[in-house]
Design brief:
Layout (H helix, E strand, L loop, with lengths): L1 E2 L5 H11 L12 E6 L2 E7 L8 E6 L2 E8 L18 E9 L9 E5 L2 E7 L23
Antiparallel strand pairs: 1-6, 2-3, 3-8, 4-5, 5-6, 7-8
């Protein structure tokens, strides 16, 4: 039901990590998992250290875009950084959602640095039984 928008995404993610933090014009990728659970798809993004108000989720037609920004923590003037490995900047991920998903009823939850999106499967895409009517017999067509 979910389709990747770029087959070279992992290579791009590695290159962006080597080049430095993401910017609004060129954001870094964020890790995610996607799976089906009952009648919905679940997409989980790792965003540790990101405030909930710094996360933006948009859906336009079938394109889901998640953007987040991790800003540096405010430090006192006398602090001298010895090591900085936690990536800062802008992170983004785009997914093309299948037509069988109900983009009108996406639910988002953010807890402990993990953003979870639940996307229900549209009613028209769910399996259903078709009943068979039994006719009363042959009908003649007058001619």
């Amino acid at each position: 039901m979910l389709m990747r928008t770029d087959p070279f995404r992992e290579l791009d993610r590695l290159a962006q990590q080597l080049m430095g933090p993401g910017t609004w014009s060129k954001p870094s990728a964020m890790p995610m998992d996607a799976y089906r659970e009952g009648d919905e798809y679940v997409v989980v993004f790792d965003l540790p250290g990101v405030n909930a108000d710094a996360i933006d989720i948009d859906v336009e037609r079938n394109m889901l875009t998640v953007r987040a920004e991790r800003r540096p923590a405010a430090k006192a003037d006398d602090v001298q950084m010895e090591l900085s490995e936690r990536p800062l900047g802008v992170f983004s991920r785009q997914l093309v959602l299948a037509d069988t998903l109900d983009t009108e009823h996406i639910e988002a939850d953010y807890d402990a640095g993990v953003l979870t999106l639940r996307i229900p499967i549209a009613e028209r895409a769910k399996p259903r039984k078709i009943s068979i009517g039994v006719g009363t017999g042959r009908k003649e067509i007058p001619g």
